[in-house]
């Protein structure tokens, strides 16, 4: 993958993901988590401080060794049992119907085949389990979408395969999730092309 993607980008993402202005969003998306949770694209554990007390354990799925090391400081500061349990959201090493809830923040943009990852989440979630998501993607406005389509190839190169043009709601519905809550908004302090966020929850029937 190269030095940039393997060693530099995880540090950039760790710094960007630690921004104070993202904390209210992380708090919101994590608020409903409970029981045994799988988090895909765990990154450097920026959601860890926001896991509610109702969380019993977290299976972290993250390919980057550097990101996992950077998570150490947050893992030492929590009582929640977090284990790095997989490397690829597209192929989860878990039995069917094992988890009560799942979490994905700013990750479906980067996973090469997001449909495969959502299919896997449906498989490992219990019937009635909930996916909590906070993802950027296709903007609600056509003017912004035009720029997203223009900039997508550049974004993919500089941001580790991150796409600007994925429709989060469409991906969830196609995978068979029932969206129970959805808030679409532009993230403050981020250019609209990369800050069209979808925050909510989706039930696996
Ligand atoms: C933009 S970062 C978000 C990290 C973290 N979720 C956060 O909110 O700060 C995207 C993460 O997805 C991870 N990722 C990339 N490909 C993946 C895959 N196939 N399966 C799981 N995670 C993946 C990256 O290593 C990176 O940590």
Task: Describe the 3D structure.
- This protein is an alpha/beta fold and 205 residues long.
- The protein is built from 7 helices and 7 strands; from the N terminus they run H-H-E-E-H-H-E-E-H-E-H-H-E-E.
- It has helices spanning 3-17, 23-30, 65-70, 72-75, 114-124, 142-158, 168-174, and strands at 35-40, 55-61, 81-86, 99-105, 125-136, 178-186, 196-203.
- It has a 7-stranded mixed β-sheet with strand order 3-2-1-4-5-7-6, sandwiched between helices.
- Helix 5 links the parallel strand 4 (99-105) and strand 5.
- The N and C termini lie far apart (37 Å).
- 42% of the residues are buried.
- The mean pLDDT is 97.
- The chain binds S-adenosylmethionine.
- Residues 13, 17, 40-41, 43, 46, 61-64, 67, 88-90, 105-107, 110-111 line the site of S-adenosylmethionine (SAM).
Determine Rg (CA atoms, Å): 16 Å
Number of strands: 7
Shape, principal axes of CA atoms: globular
The low-confidence runs, each spanning 5 or more residues with pLDDT under 50, are none
Report the average pLDDT across residues.
97
How would you concisely characterize the structure shown here?
By secondary structure, the protein is α/β, with parallel strands linked by helices. The chain has helices spanning about 5-15, 25-30, 65-70, 70-75, 115-125, 140-160, 170-175; strands at about 35-40, 55-60, 80-85, 100-105, 125-135, 180-185, 195-205.
């Amino acid at each position: 993958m190269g030095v940039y993607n393997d060693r530099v980008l995880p540090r950039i993402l760790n710094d960007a993901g630690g921004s104070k202005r993202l904390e209210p969003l992380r708090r919101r998306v994590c608020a409903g988590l409970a029981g045994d949770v799988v988090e895909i694209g765990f990154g450097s554990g920026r959601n860890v401080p926001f896991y509610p007390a109702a969380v019993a354990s977290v299976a972290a799925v993250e390919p980057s060794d550097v990101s996992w090391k950077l998570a150490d400081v947050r893992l030492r500061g929590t009582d929640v049992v977090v284990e790095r349990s997989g490397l690829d959201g597209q192929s989860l090493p878990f039995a069917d119907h094992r988890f009560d809830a799942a979490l994905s923040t700013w990750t479906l943009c980067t996973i090469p085949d997001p449909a495969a990852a959502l299919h896997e989440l449906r498989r490992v979630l219990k019937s009635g389990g909930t996916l909590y998501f906070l993802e950027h993607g296709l903007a609600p406005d056509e003017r912004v979408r035009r720029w997203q389509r223009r900039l997508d190839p550049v974004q993919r190169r500089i941001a580790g395969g991150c796409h600007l043009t994925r429709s989060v709601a469409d991906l969830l519905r196609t995978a068979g999730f029932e969206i129970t809550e959805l808030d679409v908004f532009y993230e403050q302090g981020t250019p609209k092309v990369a800050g069209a966020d979808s925050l909510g929850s989706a039930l696996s029937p």
